[in-house]
Amino acid sequence: MIFDAPRILDAGQPFSLWAPPAHADSTPCGHGVVVEPLLDTSADELAHEVALRLRSADRLGETKVRAYDDRCVVVVSLATGRCEARDDGAARLLAEASWFADAIAGSLDVLRERAARAVAQRDRSTCKRALAACADDSMTPYHHLFPADWNPVVMVDGTAYHVVDHHCSNPACACTEIVLGLYRIHGDTARHVGDLRVDRRDARPCPKATTPAASALFDRVWEHYGDELVRRHDEVRAVVRAMANELAARAATVAVGATTNHAAPGPRKPVSGRPSRNAPCPCGSGKKYKRCCALAPRAADRSR
């Protein structure tokens, strides 16, 4: 399976920038900064700049990072990469880590993409449009319903796994299970390693796993994303039910309109000539002529 690279590589998590080595042939420096973009500002602001919460960090081996609690905030221009300190800690970091400004400038594409994606996440109507194209008995990946949302990615022993949650589009289904597909990421491709089913009603989830590999990944997946996966499940189910209610209301409105607009019987057709007394009356009443329009002249005579 081949995935869209931005979706695979960006789970909306903090990332690390590391100081360059002192010399070209020396070993990489183990000191750096953990960067957490703050994307809860307005769309207008995110079009121009992004605030970053920074923490100093040390690299522990190939995949582990120790981040410290000395948080500070800088604001980065998305046009130029210029950094502006927002507190004393940030001012000290920019003065002491002269390499940081260049490292951020090299990450501008990532920051621009994250800012644009954060704005796009505010459009929740994408789910209805995607569900409208689904069959009632189909299961649809969450990233098809909300393509801008962050994607769950967990690291286990230096390997990244993509977690794909699938959702039912049938409003009549009870759907209390969260269905997860697990994919091992390698470059731009991903290999399916198994599925998990978790009942969202369980206080202590006990997953049903299709493979030992999927079972082994559950604890890490649920630790990082359990609350988010429950939220996603509930959001999609709410949209599915709302769409079903809208369709039912629309059908009821059409039925009422059809009843209201039903044409009332029109006036009887005038009789031209006198048919046989036992023939159907030409006015269309369904009665014999002698029991219908043949009586009209007599009634007129009696009224004089």
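That was protein one. Protein two is written in the same sequence-then-structure order:
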Amino acid sequence: MVDSESGIREIGPAAHRAGVQRLLSSYRAIPPDANVRLAKKTSNLFRARARSTAPGLDVSGLDAVISVDPVARTADVQGMCTYEHLVDATLPYGLAPLVVPQLKTITLGGAVTGLGIESTSFRSGLPHESVLEIDILTGSGDIVTATPDNEHADLFRSFPNSYGTLGYSTRIRIELEPVEKYVALRHLRFTDLARLQETMDRIAAERSWDGIAVDYLDGVVFTTHEAYLTLGVQTDEPGPVSDYTDMDIYYRSLQHESINHPKTDRLTIGDYLWRWDTDWFWCSRAFGTQNPKIRRFWPKRHLRSSFYWKLIGLDQKYDIGDRLEARKGLPPRERVVQDIEVPIENCGHFLRWFLDEIPIEPLWLCPLKLREPAHPSLDAHRQSHEAAPRPWPLYPLEPGRTYVNIGFWSSVPIRPGEPVGAANRLIEKKVAELGGHKSLYSESFYDEDEFALLYGGEHYPQIKKRYDPDSRLLDLYSKAVQRK
């Protein structure tokens, strides 16, 4: 249904079935010798995608919320539904997904099959950990319902980080959590990265600071001597709120001089969830939109990540950035757009190394831990099968261990004589040395053996053979790694 006042879309089961039939028809139209792919014009990936002249899967009828159950605190959501639409449907009920990735156009299916993270991840894990069941179109052309404890439990566990190489989600049932109207923020300043790491570790473990519960936790590193942790607390207490959707820029609002007196702020829950989208964290500066003279005339509707993606697409198509660099007599640049995870005890080490070796700042910090406890059905499944130490085999994290996601998104000059992806290769080596992983949405340069050790080992070929026996879908290494 569509609520004429709010614009909320809950399309209902009948419309969902029609979208699934359209998807299946498009699958059957793809030649047997062609790889199956999505007919999708937009993406949140920063790596090259395989080109194909064959028709793709029609997912145009799979981009909405099917229904919200405010009593059970669940939502049935189509795989191509964006988090922007999902949050629009749940917030009127006082509910939100347990983890809401930072950018409005990230889809629920994308976050589950490609991973996602946000400031609730220190207490709620990653988006796939609040999934109750999922309908998946597999490479064999069948739609199966996977749950933690049914005959497709192996697919349920293997779907996260498979990036569409095991199939595509058509419907996902997720848990929701109650949220209040506002989020009160404290920005703690640090001049020492060791102290930052220690404080982040303590908050992630205790879920409080100075006797106050912490609902949201992330941070920003500007230099080795200027970094911040932002602590968010839900509240219904009325009062003034800040607005970072116009002239003011959120990440700049974190900065202040006092170590002993944190800067405070307040946002509506909706503005908090999308606080990073307006300026794509800080990446909007590449387009000049942080210059007040430009920002004043920049249409407000284009202050959002989806529009910056269009500009990035133009740059990639016409090599605009490298052409401008060449006119200045400067070398072309290598994109260094990555999210990596290291155990929290290695966070300070990685940050100091990175700031010395890679000329990119700021850096985003987001602590995470596998969710404890997960939803009851998953707990029962783990108990009945004596819970393996790696419950999500394609992105193995140790239960009970805290990690830190570190995000950096920019470019560096290419030095003559260096191999393709030199900076990214250096980062991959350091992350592996520190016992970490990196997300696969951007360029990767691993060899096949190292990649297999990090992302599924012997498990992946087995699950691939069961659900994509004819290799209609690309395998994970072919899809994720840039091979030269």
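The two ends are 49 Å apart (CA to CA). Keep this in mind for the problem set.
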